[in-house]
Amino acid sequence: MKIGLLLYNGCMPAGLLAFNDLLQASNRLSGKKLFETCLVGTSLKPVQCANHMVLTANSLLEETQLDVLLVPGMWTESPTDIPARLAQHAGLIDTLQHLPASTQVWSYCTGVCLLAASGRLKNQKATVTWWLVEFMQKHYPKVHWQIDSDCMFTSKVATAAGVHGYLLLAQQLIEKSLSKAAFQEFMKLMVLPRPVQHHPAFRSFALMEQADPLLRKLAALVTRLPAEEITVGQLASYLNMSERTLARKVQNLTQHSVASYVRLLKLQQVSEQLIWSAAPVSSISESLGYSNESNLRRQFKTVTGLSPFQYRQKYAR
Prior knowledge:
This protein has 317 residues and is α/β, with parallel strands linked by helices. The longest helix has 19 residues. Strand 10 and strand 11 form a beta hairpin. The chain folds into two domains: 188 residues, Rossmann fold, CATH 3.40.50.880; 116 residues, Arc Repressor Mutant, subunit A. Helix 6 crosses helix 7, helix 10 crosses helix 11 and helix 12 packs across helix 14.
């Protein structure tokens, strides 16, 4: 498999280089040249990447036959910056649009914006970093956005959320080409962070939690309070608003009632403790203020479809 690592002005190259390291390690482990990589660009002039790093492509993108093109993210701090960034890269977007259909295009973080602008994501399933969701859904409605997924592969495209999304893409590629055990070995030997997996019940919930100041305040409150002692009146009082206003705002922001949202917040705390600790469920129940362990178990299975034991087996780190 020949993979092009795309360089363009303002791109963040760290993920490209780390992705390349993982593929070279795969070649060494297998004893075969499973992957050939090259730096590609729309010119062979030095490219001013993010954070003052300058790199030069080995070959021209439009003249290189590739199985896969990996598009890194670009440095930006707000969705309002995206239109100007895309306008700066109109030539690159046109080149992406006219790549051979046989070339798969993969991207992560803000690089997904370039793929969407080129039309390569049209009618495809794709994901994107949480703070870009609203912008991308509005401007590219013909993409089948899977915002609850951290990584999404189809036969034509692959997308991943976050600045470290390249790791999720590499994981999928290495596990398919070698084995899951091989990637586990890389994590140990190369001291890689394990790609975070989230249950769908908490994945979109985490996005909502970060997206609005009110929800952040509400989350901080609920996290501190015992599960069985939380009331809507108590929360409204802490937040200096009426119960009716709180209910209306939470419903508009999350599509959940306050009670439902609070229940998810507490169960997310349960999820985190199951993932990150070996504490027995009885201890978790007591520490989070559930009236009894069976109540926690019942609520948790209703939301996730898994018992705490099954959840820990699947997601524990």
